[in-house]
Design goal:
The complex is a heterodimer of chains A (293) and B (438).
Chain A (H helix, E strand, L loop, with lengths): L10 H28 L2 E3 L6 E3 L3 H8 L1 H33 L5 H9 L6 H12 L5 H8 L10 H30 L2 H9 L4 H31 L1 H7 L11 H11 L3 H26 L6
Antiparallel strand pairs in A: 1-2
Helix pairs in contact in A: 1-12, 2-12, 3-7, 3-9, 5-7, 5-10, 7-9, 8-9, 9-12, 11-12
Chain B lengths: L2 H17 L6 E7 L3 H17 L3 E7 L3 H13 L6 E5 L3 H6 L4 E2 L1 H8 L10 H4 L12 E6 L1 E6 H6 L9 H13 L7 E3 L2 H12 L6 H4 L13 H14 L15 H4 L5 E5 L3 H7 L4 E4 L17 E8 L4 H15 L1 H11 L6 H9 L2 H4 L5 H6 L16 H16 L5 H23 L2
Parallel strand pairs in B: 1-2, 1-3, 7-8
Antiparallel strand pairs in B: 3-10, 4-10, 5-10, 6-8, 6-9
Helix pairs in contact in B: 5-14, 15-16, 19-20
The chains are: A mainly alpha (293), B alpha/beta (438).
């Protein structure tokens, strides 16, 4: 048996690669290069006057205390969203993995929220937790909690984390369930015969065998928390109150699209790209060592 | 498997046929942000204009919210594909007027197209906002509103309040009574927090919001709204927020429903809220001019407008401009203005239309539709009350709102909040100044 395919013409492999390379160039490198170029410019919204200002957009950004606040906020946010949605999804997956009657139905219902658009999810949660419209908000008020995400930053952050985590749980659930089902039953049975109780079986057998899935999901969830929460933030808080929910991505939107400050917005996108690349590199360099494939 | 490509080609072919322009008429693209009943007004206006002549065809297109529409227009301009007419909200004015070459000033358009046009026929309180200091009209006012105080009359009765409050101290006192009478979560509130409590408050008391006549006389303007009255007003709001005699309702109008649902019996927001109040409020309601501080000499002054105007984009063909000019003349027609006013609740833009609506006894039945006009024409506008023209206004408002929010949440004093708002806003104005002056 031949394991490697042999190309008769040296041109063919390159030809076969071209579409993929073209797509990456066109939809990733080209816009990324444009963002870098734009970040050196000072330009009005209409693009009528353009000045090349080197690194001024960056230096301005790095002297703003608000920018550092946004960086810290984004990290706290991502940690909260990733940890809550991962742990809750794992719990649900472990429970749904048990032989249950109607398991198919549960699983379907649990996957459902993933199909909901971020903005729609935001509106859904607003209807429950808006200080004067929401059903749950009223309940909280009756319990004596002065629930007010319009003014209280912590409440607003809780609201966004809840909605964002809720939306991501389905996705995590799906992977966890698949991961759990891939674990050979014989291993677990052997552990049970050896007298290991369910909790011990989970932490010593199931969990280590799940680490590849967990690692993959951590990376995906952090990227999700960085970028895909935009719709939820826009629909629920608009970055407020007093910047409490303004993440880096939302700031790019506010400064660039609403503020017409394209240079700074581009500089922020480049910074964001660098941050995410660094974050991913760290994950693969250090976290991956703890993963057993 | 062959079926799909064929039907796809057929679809493509049919869209091409449908999209091909009728060569005889000149099309005029009109991008706007009107929804619901006001969208119908826009569509009807275009239909009427198209039916009134055969040379031009106005094609209205809804492009989302005000900021969305403006961004779509700017993006289209950068791509060399701008519409002829673009509806831009009042806070976008500075951005539009600074874009020399991207827009065609209305007075120039009318002159070049040879249309009859006299800026003096329009209500100065409205056109002042969209004109140069020489009185040259840059954009055409379309839908204008102002801020008024909406009142739940049933609630006032319930709290034994005989008269609608006229001054801020009266509002505070009445709100306390209303709170005691069962409106526990909100005695009074304001939508558009900065518009109500900084912008309108300043002009209503003849105080500057910024130097250089609030930016109308130049982009080298600095913010000045951290004066004693604005600080005192915010201090009072902070105090009243503690027990919800005043309750914050957000940066935009998304919480206006608190009035129509009966939660907030006194609510300051746009006069354009009329349509919703009329449809949704199940109690006896009216509106009144904004309250003022009686210890400020000369108050109240006059209010400033909100809403949007129509900007004509640059770089189009002369025959297209001719059509645009004809359309603006068509919109200025007195009877048409009266009709738009009645249907939408927005203000009439010409003096003749206002006089006609008055003459017809329109305001006897619906006095609340005259309130914003009375506010706007209360006194001859001063440097402080003619209008606002600050660059990056959308973002400025966000910065100011952020500071007010942290003050209301008890994290900053009123003075700290307004000082920071001024300082951060000035930095943004300098940035804007840099991008416009070459």
């Amino acid at each position: 048996m031949q394991k490697q395919s042999v190309f008769r013409s040296p041109l063919l492999p390159f030809l076969l690669l071209t579409p993929q390379v073209a797509v990456v160039l066109l939809f990733f490198y080209w816009p990324a290069a444009q963002a870098v170029w734009q970040s050196f410019l000072l330009q009005d919204a209409f693009g009528l006057s353009t000045t090349f200002i080197w690194f001024e957009n960056y230096s301005e950004l790095l002297t703003q205390p608000e920018y550092y606040d946004a960086v810290v906020r984004t990290f706290v946010f991502s940690a909260a969203i990733a940890s809550s949605s991962l742990s809750f999804a794992l719990l649900l997956a472990v429970m749904a993995d048990k032989p249950l009657r109607g398991a198919g139905l549960y699983r379907t219902l649990l996957i459902w929220p993933y199909a909901v658009a971020p903005a729609v999810a935001g509106v859904l949660w607003i209807f429950m937790l808006h200080p004067s419209l929401g059903v749950l908000a009223r309940g909280l008020r009756n319990l004596g909690v002065d629930w007010n995400p319009q003014l209280n930053g912590n409440h607003a952050v809780t609201l966004i984390v809840l909605a964002a985590a809720w939306k991501q749980i389905s996705y995590n659930f799906l992977f966890f369930l698949a991961g759990l089902q891939a674990i050979p039953k014989s291993v677990l049975e052997a552990a049970a015969i050896d007298g290991a109780r369910p909790m011990r079986r989970f932490w010593t057998v199931t969990f280590p065998l799940l680490t590849p899935t967990i690692f993959f999901l951590i990376v995906v969830n952090i990227v999700y928390a960085f970028f895909d929460t935009f719709g939820i933030i826009d629909a629920m808080t608009g970055g407020g109150p007093a910047k409490a929910t303004e993440t880096l991505v939302y700031k790019v939107y506010l400064d660039g699209l609403l503020g017409g400050n394209l240079g700074s917005s581009a500089a922020q996108s480049v910074m964001l790209m660098v941050i995410v690349v660094a974050l991913t590199a760290i994950q693969f360099r250090y976290v991956e060592r703890k993963v057993t494939y | 498997m062959i079926r799909r490509p064929i039907s796809f080609t057929a679809l493509l072919a049919s869209t091409l046929v449908l999209a091909s322009p009728a060569y005889a008429v000149t099309e005029i693209q009109w991008w706007h942000a009107m929804t619901g009943g006001n969208n119908e007004v826009v569509v009807k206006l275009a239909e009427e204009f198209n039916a009134s002549q055969s040379e031009y065809k106005v094609v209205p297109a809804y492009k989302g919210s005000y900021p969305d529409t403006m961004n779509a227009g700017i993006a289209a301009f950068r791509a060399g594909n701008a519409p002829h007419i673009m509806q831009v909200f009042e806070v976008g004015t500075a951005t539009m007027m600074s874009a020399t070459g991207a827009v065609k000033p209305v007075y120039k358009l009318m002159e070049e197209a040879g249309e009859k046009f006299d800026a003096k026929n329009y209500l100065p309180a409205i056109t002042g906002y969209y004109s140069t200091s020489k009185g040259e009209m840059l954009s055409f006012p379309f839908n204008s509103s102002s801020m008024v105080m909406w009142i739940n009359k049933d609630a006032l009765k319930k709290a034994d309040i005989a008269e609608i409050p006229k001054t801020w101290p009266e509002v505070f006192e009445d709100a306390k009574k209303l709170k005691a009478a069962g409106y526990a979560t909100c005695g009074f509130s304001t939508a558009w927090v900065t518009w109500a409590n900084l912008e309108q408050l300043s002009s209503w008391h003849n105080l500057p919001l910024a130097s250089k006549a609030n930016g109308l006389d130049g982009f080298d303007t600095v913010l000045e709204f951290n004066g004693p009255l604005q600080i005192k007003h915010l201090e009072t709001l902070i105090e009243l927020q503690k027990d919800k005699t005043y309750d914050y309702s957000g940066r935009t109008n998304s919480s206006e429903g608190r009035f129509t649902s009966g939660e907030c019996p006194i609510f300051l927001t746009s006069s354009g809220f009329f349509g919703q109040v009329k449809g949704a409020a199940k109690f006896d309601w009216t509106n009144a001019p904004m309250p003022y501080y009686p210890d400020v000499a000369g108050a109240p002054q006059n209010s400033i407008i909100g809403g949007a105007s129509l900007w004509v984009m640059g770089g189009k063909k002369p025959e297209e401009y001719k059509g645009v000019a004809k359309f603006l003349t068509f919109l200025s027609d007195t009877d048409r203005q009266v009709a738009i006013h009645k249907a939408s609740g927005y203000l009439p833009i010409t003096k003749a239309a206002y006089a006609k609506a008055k003459e017809q006894g329109f305001y006897k039945d619906q006095p609340y539709l005259e309130t914003p006009l009375l506010e706007l024409t209360n006194k001859e506008p001063t440097e402080n009350s003619r209008g606002l023209r600050l660059g990056n206004m959308v973002q400025l408002r966000d910065i100011w709102a952020e500071e007010i929010e942290s003050a209301l949440a008890g994290k900053k004093t009123a003075k700290q909040a307004l000082d920071t708002a001024v300082q951060r806003g000035n930095a943004m104005l300098r940035q804007f100044e840099r991008t416009v002056s070459k």
